[in-house]
Every structure is written in C-alpha cells, then in structure tokens.
C-alpha cells in the first residue's frame, strides 16, 4: 500500500483529492499538512486522517511518503519540490498552474533536470471517463486525420488555461507546438491575491504544431459560455478531422463520424472524482515501473507552460513567437503595466 499525504486543505481541490481515495485501491491518505490549525483539524477529521502537521517539511522527514498531493499556491511550488527531493519523497502530484512567470518556470525547469522525484501536474480532466474515451477514439483514428482543434475555458490562463492546453495536447499526442500568435486583455486578474493566480482576464491564441495542425485557444471572460452556474464550469474542447469531430464540455459530449452522431450528458462531479482517482492510480503505475511515465508528467507540463509564456510574449511584442521560447523576466509586471 502506497503511503500518501496532502499539503494544503483549502475548501476547493483538496476535498476532491481526498474523496478520490474512496476509489483508490493501492494507496492510503494517511497524513496532511496545513498552516491553519482549525482547517487542518476539520479536514483530517472528515477524512479520518490521523497524522497532522503544521509544517510539511516535518511531515516529509517523519512519514517516508510515496506520494504527496501539493495543493498550494504556485508561489511555493519549487520549495515543496526541493524539500521532497531532500527528504526522499518518491512522487508529487502538483496542482496547476505549474508556474506563473518566466522566472519560476526557468527555476522549475532547472530543478527537473537533476531531480529524481516523479512529478505530475493535477490535470485530472485527462482521466475523466468520458473525456478519456473520446481521446482514445480520436487516437484510434475514428474521426480521420486531425485538421484543427478548438479549446476554451471560462477562467484566466493561470486558473484554467493550462487545463485547456493539456486537453489540446491529449488529443494531439506526439506533436510539438512550434509557434503561437496571441492577444490578451483585462487587468483584474493581474491584481495580487492570496492564491497568486496572476494572469490577464482574457486570452486568445493560435498555436501551430510541427505537423501543420493549428489549435485555437480562448481563455477567460471572452470565452464561450458552455457550462452551468459558476465561471469554472465552462471548459470545452472540439477536435475536427477528415471524417468527423468530437466535442467535450464539463456536462456533455458528442462525436460525429461520417454523418453519424452520438451524444450524451454526464455529471461533472461524478466524472471528476473518478478521473482524480485514475490520475492517482497512474502515479502508482509510474512508481512501480519507470517505463510507465505518467501522461501528466512535469516535462509535458513545462511544454504547456512555455506556450503560456509564449502567449504573453506574443501579446506584449505584437508578433508571432517561436516555441519553445526563452521568455524574458517580469512578464506579469509588464502585462500589469499595459493592462491595469
């Protein structure tokens, strides 16, 4: 049985992480760490977690953990990774976004080059049963040769943009982004907050891949409204091929092949818990066998976040940007100066 723990027990993603363990057979959530004693106690009581720590470093040193869920603001991602490396933690599942600006992206990329910790980013949508089935059907060639992809999300690039980019990559496996042309607008999301999810309010980008496919990405206030209550419910992706298409949203799905259409609905909450569980099980696969690299691994997340930095650079410099880019420092400050 793999020994698992969680850092950060805020009211949102942490509950889904813990609830997923009801569907996980090979791991046990046995420890938790948080800076707020009352929140930690309530969370640990609800999920029957006995071992509780105010300092995650102490938890790392004492518990000999196999897998830790890192549910923290992006501003402390790197320090948690470094502490895990120092204490022999085998694997991390880190909340998105991986980074915010060019400086932390470069620091994490440098860490990854010499690290033995297995790290995945928590884009659990990849493993939601319906979306995973659509990804597999596209990979099997049901809609023919892919021609283009269209993805969007209701929140900004820091909150949900990497979800959309990961979705694009999931339907375009083995392909590499080579150029981006983008525009951004709105400065409210660049105001500092405790969550540190700093990004322009809206973004629009055209991403070119090495085989000629283009993906279109919309993120934030100007993206299509396809969900239910709450701006976070408006994630979607459509993939178009020579024989048909697929379309997935948080509440519905559709696939059309040679004029025949299948469609249906699903409940996001139920899909999400199962996707979270399968994402965690895939980490156990990777721990057991180095060859079974997690599809949401850190290297793939670095590629996605490099696209985000390319979007910022393209918008600021008003030109197409070749990928991977080597972003200048202080992109968020430059965007703030332009948009706030």
Write structural notes for this entry:
It is a single chain. With 340 residues, the chain is an alpha/beta fold. The protein has two domains: 144 residues, Rossmann fold; 181 residues, Dihydrodipicolinate Reductase, domain 2, CATH 3.30.360.10. Helix content is 37%, strand content 25%. The chain is built from ten helices and 15 strands. A nine-stranded mixed beta sheet has the order 14-13-12-11-7-10-9-8-15, with helices on one face. Strands 3-2-1-4-5-6 form a six-stranded parallel beta sheet, sandwiched between helices. β2, α2 and β3 form a beta-alpha-beta unit. The longest helix is centred in the C-terminal third of the chain and has 21 residues. The relative contact order is 0.15. The model has no long low-confidence stretch (mean pLDDT 96).
Give the topology, please.
Elements lengths: L1 E6 L5 H7 L7 E7 L3 H10 L4 E3 L2 H8 L3 E4 L6 H11 L3 E4 L7 H13 L3 E4 L7 H11 L6 E8 L3 H15 L5 E9 L16 E8 L4 E7 L15 E6 L2 E6 L2 E6 L2 E6 L2 H21 L9 H20 L3 E2 L8 H9 L1
Parallel strand pairs: 1-2, 1-4, 2-3, 4-5, 5-6, 7-10
Antiparallel strand pairs: 7-11, 8-9, 8-15, 9-10, 11-12, 12-13, 13-14
Helix pairs in contact: 3-4, 4-5, 5-9, 7-9, 9-10
CATH superfamily of the largest domain: Dihydrodipicolinate Reductase, domain 2
Number of helices: 10
Assigned CATH class of the largest domain? Alpha Beta
Q: Quickly count the domains.
A: 2
Global mean pLDDT:
96
Main sheet properties: 9 strands, mixed
Order of helices and strands: EHEHEHEHEHEHEHEEEEEEEHHEH
- Percent strand equals 25-35%
Named at the architecture level, the CATH assignment of the largest domain is 2-Layer Sandwich
Distance, first to last CA = 50 Å
Low-pLDDT stretches are none
Task: Return the CATH topology of the largest domain.
Answer: Dihydrodipicolinate Reductase, domain 2
Q: How many distinct beta strands?
A: 15
Major sheet strand order: 14-13-12-11-7-10-9-8-15
C-alpha geometry:
globular
Calculate Rg over CA atoms. 20 Å
